[in-house]
């Protein structure tokens, strides 16, 4: 099917007001934040989609997918547009972006059964604002909360800043509705737990638009005790000793909502007024007063048990103040983009990985050493560091952060800087047995390591793909590697 035929077919399914072919919107839809610099400089090397469409019901999504499936049209599902790993980037000439804009209803807030049901285009912030007014919360708070929407949050298996208490989105989703390429609409019912076979929610959660289109989500709710929040901050000797304190807290069964360790370099950019060139350890505690009291005691005891690692105590108001300004609004995202359009020759990116407690410090040290000694443009780095921000009983994550001055043509930035840096982080993580991807999704830019990540279990993922998307129309190049396209758009 060519572009004209696709537009004609879309017009048979949707009202003209639901079809967007504005060239600026299509350019914006051709890539996400992995290529944010090239995008801002107008040098993107990928094709634009033919149209962005805005279905208003699962039935309309179904009709769209049936048509695309029949004619081999690539489909990119889209929600809040905050993707960072190429999940929204287009690698096919004939593509339609199916956007959640008109799936924007909060269907039900049920405070007695502690769950809320929303359509996939509801922004997390909008639900959260309504819930807070009722003394409730989803507990989900990614930094992109003001912009990200439920379809994307579920499809990327996102995680929020309070994850140590509430978990990731996979711990919050009760049930959902999704549409498959053959047009079938599946609803997964909302029950507290069931042992009715494999957990089919996970076919949609984390699928990054490669298996189905998510139209509706039901999440758990929690009581919100804003008045009980407590904050702790410390300067610590090094990343490894900070991680040892995190471990002490976690293995003793305490669940602060936030537990983080920042490297010296990362602390410098976050806590410029008081970091004193040291690593920073911090905690936030929330919830019912009795639990808060016990958790605070547990943190104090854990810190005491590692007193040799602690260099100074930081005032809790400094941590609280910092937290209140951490989220990114749409304006922050737009301002960064305008900065890159107008004058900036500088960019910053992140890569997030996870591993067990004993492996994480080794990955961190090896990555730092390899980048400093092997990366040919190491002298252009203006910041290289990281932080651990999501902890579990058996390990934690590491969020590598790297900023650099761009001394090459804008179209070469990805190949000269961003991708080689991400490659070192991914290679080192996989070599030591960690996961190359903690919460941003595989997208298109980590798909080349999919087999290395999953090993013999790749079989299970490949079977899901061939069963649910046999014609390969869902988000070509995302998660499932396409060697020819990787050579063309990545290398
Ligand atoms: C400033 C900033 C801060 C961030 N902080 C965090 C953080 O703290 N934690 C975190 O986990 N992530 C974070 N991210 C990454 C990003 O916000 C998350 O991945 C988020 O879940 C994406 O949601 P979205 O609505 O923007 O989805 P989009 O960007 O629109 O899409 C993301 C992926 O989901 C797929 N998708 C979208 N909608 C659907 C649907 N309806 N059905 C099926 N597939 C769909 C897309 O095809 C794509 O692959 C951050 C990003 C930015 C820019």
**Distinct ligands, ions and cofactors found in the model:** flavin-adenine dinucleotide
Number of strands: 19
Helix segment tally = 19
Task: Please state roughly what percent of the residues sit in beta strands, choosing from under 5%, 5-15%, 15-25%, 25-35%, 35-45% or over 45%.
Answer: 15-25%
Report the mean per-residue pLDDT as an integer.
Answer: 96
What does this structure look like?
This protein has 491 residues and is of the alpha+beta class. Among the domains are: 3-101, Uridine Diphospho-n-acetylenolpyruvylglucosamine Reductase, domain 2 (2-Layer Sandwich); 106-223, Uridine Diphospho-n-acetylenolpyruvylglucosamine Reductase, domain 3; 226-323, Alpha-Beta Plaits (2-Layer Sandwich), CATH 3.30.70. It is 36% helix and 21% strand. It contains 19 helices and 19 strands. Strands 12, 13, 14, 15, 16, 17, 18 and 19 form an 8-stranded antiparallel beta sheet that branches. The chain has a 5-stranded antiparallel beta sheet with strand order 5-6-10-8-9. A hairpin with a 4-residue loop joins strand 5 (106-110) and strand 6. The radius of gyration is 22 Å and the shape is globular. The two termini are 29 Å apart. The structure holds flavin-adenine dinucleotide. Flavin-adenine dinucleotide (FAD) binds at residues 33, 76-84, 87-88, 100, 120, 142-144, 148-149, 151-153, 155-156, 158-159, 208-209, 213-214, 328, 439-441, 475, 478.
